[in-house]
Design brief:
Aminopeptidase; OB fold (Dihydrolipoamide Acetyltransferase, E2P); four-stranded antiparallel sheet; 18 strands
Length: 344
């Protein structure tokens, strides 16, 4: 069935058009104008509207690159429905290489926002009222914190079977059921009955080629499931087995110092196993061991050797199908985050 024209940010888009939009944002104190880049591919034939956003925390780069690569895919030439892609949703944070907006507020804790509120609240309101209502489905591309690498993982609602089905289609190694954080875009989307996936992989301020590859393929997998792409397309190459997290927790540093560890992402650990040794940088104190509190697999890791007491070191997860997960992650090859982390 033929598609009809659509209006996005006061711009009329006709079937078969691909255009770039710029949503005006609150100005900087210097009166410099700011705009949010929006890429719209409006298919010739009817179908759902998929919204894909990245860099909601401004220092996250992997998602921006995922969108750039996605928009170049030839499969989009015969798109059914509409793809709305926002490669940098937190423009202010991206420019300043910061997770936060002016005033120190987090955009992803400010939804649904307010037109008369703080800077963050006004930006959140623009997204909640002018962008999100257009979407039938949404994917938010995130990374781990600065100096923290995460295995590619998808977060879905605890009781949301539609999101769970989409997550299994996405094909990330890890799926976690987790309720949305208060004030998050995900919470606002769920309140509007928009199925919402969060894909989190890699590390802030670093490219992780494996995480990017999984992200691009995952979005294409979902678009094919939603019948936005030609059914005749070949099956995904090297599909990834996904495993549902049963429990997970972070191991924190018991003291301040220099962390020495050889444990890699995806490694299986046993309760009581040595994970790291915290050493006094001045050589005056005793070495303090860090051990695993439970059996599991390392799905998150702090890459920075210099740690303060209480710093997160390793995220350990157990899985519903633990034996299969262990076997799968033994063959998992990390991306280039360790290599990139050494660069300036």
């Amino acid at each position: 069935m033929k598609n009809s024209k659509v209006t996005i940010c006061d711009e009329v888009i006709h079937p078969g058009e691909t255009i770039s939009l710029a949503l005006p944002l609150p100005e900087l104190f210097s009166c410099a104008p700011m705009y949010m880049p929006i890429k719209v591919t409006h298919g010739k034939n009817k179908g759902p509207v998929l919204l894909v956003v990245a860099a909601i925390h401004g220092n996250e780069l992997n998602g921006t690159e995922i969108i750039h690569q996605l928009l170049k895919r030839p499969e989009l030439e015969d798109l059914c429905g509409t793809l709305i892609a926002i490669p940098i949703i937190n423009v202010y944070g991206f420019i300043n290489r910061s997770r936060t907006l002016p005033g120190g507020s987090s955009l992803n804790q400010s939804f649904p926002g307010s037109p008369n509120g703080s800077h963050a609240a006004r930006l959140a309101d623009l997204i909640s009222t002018r962008i999100l209502p257009l979407a039938d489905y949404c994917i938010d591309l995130q990374t781990g914190f600065l100096n923290h690498s995460n295995l590619p993982q998808v977060f879905v609602g605890v009781e949301n079977q539609v999101e769970m089905d989409l997550a299994e289609t996405f094909g990330a190694p890890v799926i976690a059921r987790l309720e949305p954080e208060p004030g998050s875009l995900r919470e606002t989307a769920n309140a509007q009955d928009v199925p919402f996936l969060v894909y989190e992989a890699g590390e802030a301020m670093r490219f992780d080629e494996h995480a990017i590859e999984v992200g691009v393929q995952g979005i294409l997998n979902i678009m094919q499931k939603l019948e936005m792409l030609d059914k005749a397309l070949p099956e995904p190459v090297n599909p990834t087995s996904s495993f549902l997290v049963k429990t997970s927790s972070w191991v924190r540093s018991p003291t301040s110092g220099i962390s020495h560890s050889q444990i890699r992402l995806g490694a299986e650990v046993k309760k009581g196993q040595s994970l790291s040794m915290i050493k006094d940088p001045f050589g005056a104190g005793h070495d303090v061991p860090v051990t695993a509190p439970a059996d599991g697999i390392i799905v998150g890791k702090n890459n920075l050797p210099l740690v303060h007491e209480g710093a997160t070191l390793f995220q350990i997860a157990s899985f519903s199908e633990m034996a299969k997960a262990v076997s799968h992650f033994e063959n998992w090859k990390p991306g280039v985050e360790d290599e990139a982390g050494e660069s300036e």
